[in-house]
Amino acid sequence: MSDAVSLALWSAVSAAGLFSVVLLSLGTATGLRVRSGRPLPLLDRAGTVRVHRHLTALGTIGLAVHVTLAILDPYTQLTALAAVFPFTAPDSPLAYGIGTLALWAIAAVVGTSILRRILPQRLWGTVHLAAYGAWALGILHSVLAPSTSGLPGLVVTACCTLLVLVAAVDALWLRPAPLLLSAERRRRPHALTAAPALAPAPALRRTR
C-alpha cells in the first residue's frame, strides 16, 4: 500500500471516529432531554425523539465505518478478532479494548431498540441505560486511540464531553421536576391518581 493511500485511509479512520463521537454525543444529549420530559426548542416531544433516533442512527453508522476502516488500515494493527474481543489488539490494547467495550454496549442498545416492540418495556429501559456507559467509553477511547488523540481530536472530544455534561446537569439537576414526578408516581401510584375524598353530605333535617 502506497504512502498516499495509507495516509488517506488513516485520515478516513480519524474522520469517521470523530464523526461518530460528535453524533453520538448529540444523540446522548437529546436523549437526556427526552428523559427529562422537556422537548428541544421549537420541537414537541415526538420531534425531539425523532431527532434523538436519527442522530443515534447516523452516529452508529459512522461508528461501523470507523471500525471497518480501522481493520483495513495496516497502520492501526487492529484485526477483526481484536475488534470483537476486547484488549486483544497487539498495538494499543487498552485504547482498542475500551473501544470494543463501547461497541458492544452500543450494539446492545441498538439491538434492543430494534426489537423494542416485542421486548418487555422494563428490559428495554434497563439496557437502554447502557447508552450512557457506551458514550463514556467512547469518549475515553477517543482520548486514548492513536487515530483521534491528536490536538484536533482532543478539542472535538472535549467539546462533546462538555455538551453532554451540560445537558446532564440541565436535565437531572437544574430542572428535575419531570423526573422527580415520574419517580413519585412509581413510588405512590395510587396516592397521585386517586380522586380526592368527597366531603360528607350535610344531614337532612327531619320534617314533621
Account of the protein in words:
The chain is mostly helical. It has one domain (3-190). It is 73% helix and 0% strand. Helix 1 (3-36) packs antiparallel against helix 2 and helix 4 runs antiparallel to helix 6. The radius of gyration is 24 Å and the shape is globular. The relative contact order is 0.13. Mean pLDDT is 85; it is low at 177-184 and 189-201.
Keywords:
single chain, 208 residues, mainly alpha, 73% helix
Brief synopsis:
The chain is an all-alpha fold and 208 residues long. Helix content is 73%, strand content 0%.
Work out the radius of gyration.
Answer: 24 Å
Q: Please give the number of β-strands.
A: 0
Give the DSSP E fraction (strand runs of 2 or more residues): under 5%
Unreliable stretches covering 5 or more consecutive residues: 177-184, 189-201
Whole-number count of domains: 1
Span of the ends, CA to CA: 112 Å
> How many strands, which pairing sense, and closed or not: the largest β-sheet?
none
Secondary-structure blueprint:
Elements: H1 3-36, H2 45-72, H3 80-84, H4 93-114, H5 121-128, H6 130-144, H7 151-174, H8 177-187, H9 189-193
Helix pairs in contact: 1-2, 1-6, 1-7, 4-6
